[in-house]
Design brief:
- The protein is an alpha+beta fold.
- The protein has 2 helices and 5 strands, in the order ββββαβα.
- The chain has a 5-stranded mixed beta sheet.
- A hairpin with a 2-residue loop joins strand 1 and strand 2.
- The longest helix has 15 residues.
- The chain is flat and about 35 Å long.
- The chain starts with a strand and ends with a helix.
- The model has no long low-confidence stretch (mean pLDDT 92).
Length: 84
């Protein structure tokens, strides 16, 4: 199954996550098909903390990709931020 989830990168105690489309059998930080955004929980107010390519997200969901629970929460948060 194709899944949209977060892959961790960044340094120790400085997390940075890429939102990736991958096969569910791959490791968390392993091989992926496409990077569709990122999430930086430690972003300063002047930096972007969450960026998602909504067009690519819709494309992959249209082709059967499932969102992980955390990715779903971030997508919902991004949609609310864009609406406001």
């Amino acid at each position: 199954m194709v899944v949209i989830r977060l892959a961790r990168s960044g340094a120790k105690k400085r997390p940075f996550f890429n939102m990736v489309v991958t096969d569910s059998r791959n490791r968390r930080d392993g091989r992926f098909v496409e990077r569709i955004g990122f999430y930086n929980p430690k972003a300063a107010e002047t930096e972007q903390g969450l960026v998602i390519d909504i067009a690519r997200l819709a494309y992959w969901q249209g082709h059967g990709a499932q969102l992980s629970p955390t990715a779903a929460r971030l997508v919902k948060q991004a949609a609310a931020k864009k609406a406001a």
